[in-house]
């Protein structure tokens, strides 16, 4: 397989690739992400192979609207204070997974990480696909997340179908916060801080 560089204007090509179980890379407002359609197990295997990802580590679900969150997650009333203040944005929230959601999507975990990105192109891509994407960072497992097209190719050339030409200005992955318990728990620090999350819950 040869990884092809494409422009954002070729979005329909990318939608078709996603709908045919292919793995693509694209810039977001944080770092480059690797995307697949969330409910394709064939694409999931390709994504794990591309990243050399440990079987035990789940992928983030990327949505195009906050209304999609309740299809997959059990939310508390207080969670919506955080969602409404910080989404779309550079934040991944972890919730309890709804029982009816296929556990293979979360690698068997009873929790699910969800991100609603603040990037017009990525949102258009997800909307055109018509369903969420699973989107980890674009890198080989254990390596730095890519923030440019060349960095994606340096690690993943020949492992994915397409990479969207671009560069990430933030160069920092999203903050990850667990809202599973009553008190929010910081999993990974990004631009948004735990203190800001706690303030939103007051």
Outline the fold blueprint.
Layout lengths: L3 E3 L4 H9 L4 E3 L6 E5 L3 H11 L9 E2 L10 E2 L4 H8 L4 E7 L13 E5 L4 H10 L3 E2 L14 H8 L5 E3 L10 E4 L6 E4 L5 H7 L2
Parallel strand pairs: 1-9, 2-9, 4-7, 6-10
Antiparallel strand pairs: 2-3, 3-8, 4-8, 5-6, 6-7, 10-11
Briefly, what is this?
This protein is α/β, with parallel strands linked by helices. It has helices at residues 11-19, 41-51, 79-86, 120-129, 149-156, 194-200; strands spanning 4-6, 24-26, 33-37, 61-62, 73-74, 91-97, 111-115, 133-134, 162-164, 175-178, 185-188.
Description:
With 202 residues, this protein is an alpha/beta fold. The chain is built from 6 helices and 11 strands. Strands 1, 2, 3, 4, 5, 6, 7, 8, 9, 10 and 11 form an 11-stranded mixed beta sheet that branches. β10 (175-178) and β11 form a beta hairpin. α1 packs across α4 (120-129). The longest helix has 11 residues, at 41-51. The model has no long low-confidence stretch (mean pLDDT 95).
């Amino acid at each position: 397989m040869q990884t092809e560089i494409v422009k954002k204007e070729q979005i329909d090509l990318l939608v078709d690739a996603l709908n045919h179980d292919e793995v693509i890379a694209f810039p977001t407002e944080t770092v480059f992400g690797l995307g697949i359609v969330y409910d394709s197990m064939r694409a999931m295997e390709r994504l794990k192979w591309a990243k050399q990802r440990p079987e035990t580590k789940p992928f983030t679900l990327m949505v195009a609207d906050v209304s999609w969150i309740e299809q997959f997650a059990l939310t508390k009333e207080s969670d919506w204070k955080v969602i409404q203040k910080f989404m779309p944005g550079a934040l991944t929230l972890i919730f309890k997974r709804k029982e009816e959601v296929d556990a293979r999507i979360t690698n068997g975990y009873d929790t699910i990480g969800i991100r609603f990105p603040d990037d017009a192109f990525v949102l258009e891509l997800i909307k055109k696909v018509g369903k969420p994407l699973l989107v980890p960072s674009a890198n080989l497992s254990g390596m730095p997340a890519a923030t440019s097209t060349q960095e994606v190719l340096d690690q993943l050339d020949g492992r994915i179908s397409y990479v969207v030409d671009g560069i990430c200005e933030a160069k920092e992955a999203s903050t990850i916060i667990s809202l599973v318990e009553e008190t929010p728990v910081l999993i990974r620090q990004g631009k948004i801080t735990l203190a800001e999350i706690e303030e939103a819950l007051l």
